[in-house]
TrEMBL record:
It is an enzyme of class 2 (transferase). It catalyses: beta-D-fructose 6-phosphate + ATP = beta-D-fructose 1,6-bisphosphate + ADP + H(+). GO terms for cellular component: 6-phosphofructokinase complex. Transmembrane segments: none annotated. It comes from Pseudidiomarina taiwanensis. It is found in: Cytoplasm. This is 6-phosphofructokinase. Its EC number is 2.7.1.11. Its cofactor is Mg(2+). GO terms for biological process: canonical glycolysis; fructose 1,6-bisphosphate metabolic process; fructose 6-phosphate metabolic process.
Amino acid sequence: MNAALRAVVLAADHYQIEVVAFRHGYKGLLENESVVLRPHDVLHILQHSGTVIKSARCQRFKTIEAAQQASSVLDENNIQALVVIGGDGSFRGAHHLAQHWHGQIIGIPGTIDNDLYGTDATIGFATAVNIAMDALDKIRDTADAMDRVFIVEVMGRDAGFIGLSSAMAAGAERMILPELQRDKPLTIAALVKHIERVQKVRGEGSYVMVLSEHQWPGGAVALAEQLEAEYHLPCRPCLLGHIQRGGAPAPADRILGAQMGVHAVELIRSGATEVMTGIRGQENVAVPIVDTWQKKHPLDPNLLRIQHEIFNPVKKSQRNH
Ligand SMILES: Nc1ncnc2c1ncn2[C@@H]1O[C@H](COP(=O)(O)OP(=O)(O)O)[C@@H](O)[C@H]1O
Ligand SMILES: O=P(O)(O)OC[C@H]1O[C@](O)(COP(=O)(O)O)[C@@H](O)[C@@H]1O
């Protein structure tokens, strides 16, 4: 997020616009935690994950009174345009605020989940995938050495982008993703059958599985215990958790943050409101903010086909000649 924040401040300075930041997101907006940001304040922050203006979840913001209060705080600070960096929750909040405030609102997609419609990528996603891939590579060493099954649980709330991309980047044998579970929920018997068939075909036991959070009751730990206890499969769980949200941001995220931050300021200058800045291909696009959560951002069907079918060691299609 820092790369986007820096870009907003530098672009605003370029166009001679003053920037006031509200610390701690909507919570800080309600409490008027405002601070003027100048280029000097955002020096050397883009190499750090997270956000120097801090963030917070704030249930209260969902009420009408909170939106009215936020509107008064913005007016008291003479704010004409608000840039909201976040995911679908933050954008729902932005839309909610727009019902009670007359200023411009521009969204910048910042979430590791990549689950927003209208943009190829969201800030944080590339970094999270890098971290998950790195962990999977490391787990593979023990899986290989000890012929073990590993279950690595990754984040994504209700979306399988981190799961699919990290599984593909690290050559995992199996993925349990929300999108796949919706079509055909995996049973433990089918999973065990897959593990055993892969081990037979390969003649070795190294099997690494990527499990998206909330896709198995009790998560990776419960699934590993079940595999050991009921099927005598040596299996270990690994929960990556919030590790995926930290560390040095990947170059792709820094560059995306830069592009989007500048685009957000330019959208303000063009008079736009209630849009999110997105990137499609090489192009900056402005996406109606309600579309970002009302429309679906699907997993790339070709990546899914490659990883789930073509790279599945035991799934073969008919020869056609
Ligand atoms: N339906 C909503 N109406 C108003 N504000 C909301 C709504 N949903 C979320 N928010 C606000 O946005 C904040 C961030 O949303 P959350 O879902 O936690 O994260 P993200 O922006 O990463 O999706 C919430 O803590 C809340 O203050
Ligand atoms: O620690 P919390 O607040 O429960 O958040 C965990 C959730 O946040 C996420 O990391 C997404 O957060 P961001 O949208 O802020 O990147 C989800 O993948 C995960 O379910």
